[in-house]
Amino acid sequence: MLKGRQQNTVLIALTDQSLSENLKPEDFFGRMVLVKKPLVSILRQLRQQSLCFISSALQESQWHELKIVIYDSDNRIMEHYDRLIKKLGELEAGLILNENWTKDHPFVMVTILAYQITILTLQKPWFIKTILLGLNMTATAIGW
Length: 144
Hints:
By secondary structure, the protein is of the alpha+beta class. The protein has helices spanning 39-57, 77-91, 125-134; strands spanning 10-12, 33-35, 64-70, 95-107, 110-121, 142-143. The protein starts with 9 loop residues before the first strand and ends with a strand.
C-alpha cells in the first residue's frame, strides 16, 4: 500500500460488502492489486468491461431488462424518480440503461407525459415491483 502513494497508481480490492458502508480490512477478499495507471483510465476500463466481469461471475442468475414508467397527477414525477434511484442504489439492485420522457396511455383515448427508466438487473421482476410498492408507486408503474 505504501507503493500506492506514488502518482498514477491505483489500489484495487474486491469485497462482497456494500460500498455505502465503512469497510474494514477483513471485508476485502484476498490480495489487493496495485496498478500503475492513472485513476481515470482505470475507471473507464472497469466501466466499459463491468458487465463482462459480472456476467462471467454468474452461475445460474439471469439478467432482466425492466422498464419503469413514472407518472403523477400532481406533477411530482422527479420526486418519485429521486426516491426510486436512491433506493435502487442503496440496494445495488440494477444499472440504469436509459431514461427519457415519453407518452403513456393509462386508459383508452388518454395520453399523458411520463418518465421512463430502463434498468438492467439480476433481481427478479417481482422484487423490483416490491420496491415500487414500498415506495408507494403504483404496481402499474413497472412493465416487463
